[in-house]
Amino acid sequence: xxxxxxxxxxxxxxxxxxxxxxxxxxxxxxxxxxxxxxxxxxxxxxxxxxxxxxxxxxxxxxxxxxxxxxxxxxxxxxxxxxxxxxxxxxxxxxxxxxxxxxxxxxxxxxxxxxxxxxxxxxxxxxxxxxxxxxxxxxxxxxxxxxxxxxxxxxxxxxxxxxxxxxxxxxxxxxxxxxxxxxxxxxxxxxxxxxxxxxxxxxxxxxxxxxxxxxxxxxxxxxxxxxxxxxxxxxxxxxxxxxxxxxx
Length: 247
Prior knowledge:
Distance between the termini: 38 Å
CATH topology: Spore Coat Polysaccharide Biosynthesis Protein SpsA, Chain A
Number of domains: 1
CATH superfamily: Spore Coat Polysaccharide Biosynthesis Protein SpsA, Chain A
Structural class: alpha/beta
CATH class: Alpha Beta
């Protein structure tokens, strides 16, 4: 049976900064297993699939009882990889779940999915969390975003958004900054369009796939979350992840 809600976890082995990251152990289990387990606990997700170009990752997923498919090695973004899985398996709503973001709770998936199911106007959606320290504000791995009054994204950048002119300290006390939590929700029609569009100039400049949507004049609904999110970008982040799981 074709799933109504399909969750895809794109996972590459050959990362430049951190090769083999999805298989890195945290609390005795590979990182990819923690991500898979959280998505599987959602009440509204019908099927969870790891999409990879690595036989090693596929085997690891199958070993813990998950589902994985081999996809093309030519995809430049995780959402394009998710589009390939959608073409093979189906799905009315597709979630692209980052394979290195720990902390997105099943209840968050369900809250966003409920909103999308109730509001047909939402074709693209994602998550954001309030910036709580100056280091994150200037960390290019923490993508910042600005929102309109209805929580649709104006823009995303690796640079602080907005830039507070003439302020040298206590920026967080003067403005509520938000960073992007890279989980993407697509209606089927939206993901088909995304995959058909060529990579856009600003997408290439910032290396941010979501800019392709904004550059093609579509809106992204943003849902704010409070969960503590850890992005595994370096081997050193694994130690932080261990501490998070001890909590």
